[in-house]
Design brief:
Elements (H helix, E strand, L loop, with lengths): L7 H24 L28 H25 L1 H4 L1 H24 L6
Helix pairs in contact: 2-4
């Protein structure tokens, strides 16, 4: 039989985590000053006239570099629990982590060969 009372904490967390952002947006919408004018619609509101076009294209290489960094940064988050419980989990988990690292190394070699790590 499906017992709903076991999920009371989950539903409370879900409701609270949904209400807090809604309240934050509602309060900021009420309390924020409303200013309209030509300066509001300009590219920069720092008092300096913008020079050139606001639509400047960046090279895709910068985004690729950032994406590769994020992938290998998140990888450490997955390896940390394995490292902390290595003595309890045994050899099978070590093999899984080793395969995971090999896949990441293959991705790094691929990105390197494609030139995604070049910064010029």
């Amino acid at each position: 039989m499906f017992l709903l009372y076991e999920y009371d904490i989950f539903w409370a967390f879900l409701i609270i985590s949904s209400v807090i952002p809604i309240l934050a947006f509602a309060i900021s919408g009420v309390l924020a000053p409303i200013s309209e004018g030509t300066e509001k619609f300009s590219s920069y509101e720092s008092g300096i006239e913008p020079m050139g076009d606001a639509w400047v294209q960046f090279r895709i290489r910068y985004y690729m570099f950032a994406l590769v960094f994020v992938v290998f940064d998140v990888e450490t988050v997955f390896l940390y629990p394995w490292a902390m419980s290595f003595d309890v989990l045994g050899v099978s988990v070590f093999i899984e982590a080793f395969i995971f690292v090999l896949i990441l190394i293959a991705g790094l070699v691929y990105a390197w060969r494609k030139g995604a790590l070049e910064w010029y």
